From TrEMBL:
Coiled coil: 251-278
Residues annotated as signal peptide: none
Protein name as it appears in the record: Putative endonuclease/exonuclease/phosphatase
GO molecular function terms noted in the UniProt entry: endonuclease activity; exonuclease activity
InterPro entries hit by this protein: Endo/exonu/phosph_ase_sf, Endo/exonuclease/phosphatase
Biased composition (Basic and acidic residues): 1-10
Protein species of origin: Helianthus annuus
Domain Endonuclease/exonuclease/phosphatase residue range list: 66-197
Pfam families linked: Exo_endo_phos (PF03372)
Region (Disordered): 1-21
Length: 291
């Protein structure tokens, strides 16, 4: 995708003195624009995810990238947030986001610094505001958002030296359609750098642990059939060029032939067990008749 994106700016940007925010995101506010501008870091997140940008919306509290991902029918909305410190202003922001979520179609990924916690154990050595906690959880419930549990650490904000303060302020909140599309997605807390916030990541692709391990039993070494397989592979034509590629090709040929050999062995053993079972059953029936 190009490094530039079409900008869609709200006519009524949010301000710290805004009211209930109910009319901030009217249909005419979410308008398209032909104006293009240089993308910033958040836009690049969408690009990295393969989003074909449809439009983006920006103000001083969040930046939204919306578009399509190849192979996914539903539109994807990715919103990077930096919530205000004051609980009163965060409550206004949650209401504004509810309006936005209800007005726009598609699945949602909302991430960043929410400046709020969802439970008391997400704060250490800092004040827990139960009122703010209730409002934040109510917003998540009303927006039908879900949170992936995080690996790599429990807290994302670390400050202080003598009296260290720990909080989980950064997280990923996603819609139910996102969970249905990527049920095995993994969220993680990464190592903190110069910032007092730890980076967070969300991996949607299934984890690839490499090739399936090939089982080999030492008891096979004394089997003449294995010796024949290896000798046949060694005497077959080799790939010219790099030695490592040639050796890898040799191992693959041996693996294919060993698996074929073991399938034949299992098939023969199963056939033998079947014959023994039938013979034993016949002997029992004959013995029963003689009685």
């Amino acid at each position: 995708m190009e490094e530039e994106a079409k900008r869609v700016m709200a006519d009524n940007e949010l301000s710290d003195n805004s009211g209930d925010g109910a009319d901030v995101f009217r249909d005419d506010v979410l308008r398209r624009s032909g104006e293009e501008t240089e993308v910033n870091g958040t836009i690049k997140v969408g690009v990295a995810l393969g989003i074909e940008e449809d439009f983006f919306l920006q103000n001083h509290r969040f930046l939204l990238v919306s578009g399509k991902i190849s192979g996914v029918e539903e539109k994807v909305n990715i919103l990077n947030i930096h919530a205000p410190d004051e609980a009163r202003l965060r409550k206004v922001l949650w209401e504004d986001l509810l309006v936005l979520i209800n007005q726009m179609e598609g699945m949602w990924v909302i991430f960043g610094d929410f400046n709020d916690v969802r439970s008391e154990d997400e704060r250490v050595n800092s004040r827990f505001d139960r009122g703010s906690f209730d409002v934040f959880n109510e917003f998540i419930m009303r927006a039908s958002l879900f949170e992936f549990s995080m690996t790599g650490g429990k807290y994302t904000f670390i400050s202080g030296y003598a009296d260290v303060k720990l909080s989980k302020l950064d997280r990923f909140l996603v819609s139910d359609s996102f969970v249905n599309r990527w049920p095995t997605a993994k969220a993680g807390v990464l190592e903190r750098g110069a910032s007092d916030h730890c980076p967070i990541s969300l991996i949607c692709n299934p984890l690839d642990f490499g090739p399936i391990p090939f089982k080999f039993f030492n008891s096979w070494i004394n089997d003449q059939n294995l010796t024949v397989i290896v000798q046949k592979a060694l005497n077959s034509p080799h790939i010219d060029g790099r030695k490592d590629l040639s050796f890898m090709s040799l191992l693959k040929r041996i693996k294919v032939e060993v698996k074929k050999w073991r399938r034949d062995v299992r098939s023969a053993e199963n056939q033998e067990r079947k014959l023994l079972s039938e013979t034993d059953m016949g002997s029992r029936c004959k013995w029963s008749k003689n009685e």
